[in-house]
Amino acid sequence: MLKHPKNLTNLTNLKDDDAVLQPLYGRRALTEPIPKYKLPENEMAVRTAYELIHDELMLDGNARLNLATFVTTWMEPEAEQLMAESFSKNMIDKDEYPQTAMIEERCINMVARLFHAPEEGQAIGASAIGSSEAIMLAGMALKWKWRQRRERQGKSSDRPNMVMGANVQVVWEKFCRYWEVEPRYVPMQRGHYTITPEGVVDLIDENTIGVVAILGTTFTGEFEPVEQIHEALMKRNAETGWEIPLHVDAASGGFVAPFLDPDLKWDFRLPLVKSTNVSGHKYGLVYPGVCWVVWRDEAELPRELIFHVNYLGGDMPTFTLNFSRPGNQVVAQYYNFLRLGRRLYAHHASDARHGDVSFRRDWQTRTVRIGQRWQCDSRVRIRDERPHTLHGVRSIGKTTRTRLAGARLYHAARCRGHRRVARLHSRRFQPRHGGHVPGRYS
């Protein structure tokens, strides 16, 4: 998190070097120091302002080498041009920009059909700025639907819980804390970093608003056994009369599985899968800032969560945690859908998997020692032989200068109340508890 310097309210307490920028340029406009933390008194020439900021940003890492945040770092020039042309279009103002709104609707339809939304139903969805927002929206829908069921039964709705693996992305913990839902974590076991049907069934009860399964986990990229979890839930629901649904967090795998594993049942082909999210800026191949959340039917999205606003013109239904945002990311996603089609999406996903297989094959030929001894097993993940931390791929950065996230693989004894912290340094890797393996999908 970025923080202001201490004593910022009194800039006289800062050293001169900390309070101002002092670039070494011959340009007259830059002969005087430029304040860092307060507005300068006078204007600056356009080119001067650009070059000053441009040069300062050169101190950042190279985005093309960043594997840590799993986002797209390159798009075709034509896509970038379309994005530049739609930066100024406010997505929320659908009366003023009806064609951009129509493009968003088309994208939602494409995603819903890709995930086999029932033709007899009326799937509904929304765009979001990322999976974090999409997950918040999906989680709210689960909680509201659960509360409606409890109220119809005349039962209390003051102790909701959600069942998920200890390997979930931190946004699920945020959702539970912000919306007062008890998180129940299925613990990870050494050498096995996905949840199991048995682990899920042991934790659910009548107050469970939903179960989360991940298609492409943050730590190892594995697909969790969604179909097996679904069958276990179906059986328990039939025995108890509960109606516990599934949400599939397909942020990473949603644009991989349909093309490489089309027979894998994880989506709306399973009746208990009520909603799913997929990240456009991961394997949707769009620059950061777009995600999609889809419900199998409009009945799964409670009406009281949808707001109608009219102060921008006509009546506009909206379900979002944000309001104003540019339409360029949605336009870029639509460009990719048209430009790539199923064939090229499958080609890109296949290339990614091939790279993963090559990485594993090369890794199996070496032994790395960084405080511990590590090895790669036949199921793709780098795993530990003894303790809990994971350092195996850290040494890659010394030769490739690639940015990898620092992450911890959680075991049963450490699965509650303690989260991993990933840190990057401008010059070298800084994993708090070890390195992170680039995503894989098998």
Automatic annotation (TrEMBL):
The modification N6-(pyridoxal phosphate)lysine is found at K282. Belongs to the group II decarboxylase family. NCBIfam families: Glu-decarb-GAD. InterPro entries: Glutamate_decarboxylase, PyrdxlP-dep_de-COase, PyrdxlP-dep_Trfase, PyrdxlP-dep_Trfase_major. It holds the Pfam family Pyridoxal_deC. Its cofactor is pyridoxal 5'-phosphate. It comes from Bremerella volcania. The keyword Mitochondrion does not apply. Keywords: Decarboxylase, Lyase, Pyridoxal phosphate. Coiled coil: none annotated. This is Glutamate decarboxylase. Its EC number is 4.1.1.15. The lineage of its organism: Bacteria, Pseudomonadati, Planctomycetota, Planctomycetia, Pirellulales. It catalyses: L-glutamate + H(+) = 4-aminobutanoate + CO2. One of its GO terms (cellular component) is cytosol. GO terms for biological process: L-glutamate catabolic process. One of its GO terms (molecular function) is glutamate decarboxylase activity. The gene is gadB_1. Transmembrane segments: none annotated.
